[in-house]
Amino acid sequence: MASPQKSGFGTHVVKVGKHTFGAGRLTLIAGPCSIESREHFLETAEGVKAAGASFLRGGVYKMRTSPESFQGVGPAGFSYVAEVKKQVGMPLVSEVTDPRQISDLANIVDMFQVGSRNMYNYELLRELGATRKPVLLKRGFSATVDEWLKAADYVIKGGNDDVLLCERGIRTFESKTRNTLDLGTVAWLKAHTQFPVVVDPSHGTGRPELILPMSLAAVGAGADALIIEVHPRPSEALSDADQALNFEQFEKIARDVRKVAHALGREVESL
Ligand code: PEP
Ligand code: MN
Prior knowledge:
Blueprint: E1 14-16, E2 19-21, E3 27-31, H1 38-51, E4 55-57, H2 78-88, E5 92-95, H3 102-105, E6 111-114, H4 122-129, E7 135-138, H5 145-157, E8 163-167, H6 183-192, E9 197-199, H7 201-205, H8 208-221, E10 225-229, H9 247-263
Parallel strand pairs: 3-4, 3-10, 4-5, 5-6, 6-7, 7-8, 8-9, 9-10
Antiparallel strand pairs: 1-2
Helix pairs in contact: 1-2, 1-9, 4-5, 8-9
The chain binds phosphoenolpyruvate (PEP) and manganese (II) ion.
C-alpha cells in the first residue's frame, strides 16, 4: 500500500491496463487542456500519439478562475471522447471537479485528475477513495508538501491506494513564469515517499519555450511521468492557449526526453 512517509521501499506501482507508473518506465501523457469537440480531440489524440505519447489528457470539466471562461464541454462530450479513445487506443486522464460527476465520468476515464484548485476538496478526495480508478492528485498551488500528502491520505483511507502526485508549480513572488515548478520537491518525493510522481511543465511554467528544458529537468529529478498540453493550433485553444505546444514542439520533447531517459538507464513507455 502507498504510505506517504515510508522511504526505502520503492515506488507503489500504479497500473492502468498495460501501462504502469512507478515501475521505472517514463510515461508521456499529452493532449489538450480542454477537449473542445470530437474533431479537435481526435486530431489532437492522433497527433500526440504519432509524436510519442502513450496516454491522453484532456478536460471535459474545467475549473476556471473566471466563470466567464470556457467551462468544458461536459457530458455532451462523453460519447465522442469514448469513441476517440477507442479509435486511437489510448487511455485518458481527465479532471473531476465535483463528486457528483464521478460515476458518469468513470465510464470514460482511466484515471481521475484532481485539479490544483480542488486539492483541499476533502469530500471529493474521500469519494475518489471509494473508486477503483487511479487518482492523479495535483498539488494545490499554495500547498505545502505535508498538506499535499495529507490530501493523498484522504484518497488512500477511502480504500484506493492508486494515487499519483502531480507537481504543477506553486505560487511564489516570481512573475516571469506562470508558476514556480518545484522540482526540488519532486526529488524529495521520490526519495521519501512511495507515490509515482508526475510533472506538469505546462502549468508549471506557462511558457512554451520553457516546457522542453523543464521536461528534461523533471526526468533528471526522477519523475515517473510528464503531462503536457498540446493543441493542433495553440493560438486557437479555448483554454490555456498561451502554454499549449503544437505537435512539432511536443515531438521534439518526446525525442529529447527519450535521450535523457536512456542516458539514465530508463525507457519511455510506448503504446
Ligand atoms: C489542467 O490540467 O488543465 C489544469 C487546470 O491544471 P491545474 O489544476 O494544475 O491548474
Ligand atoms: Mn490547462
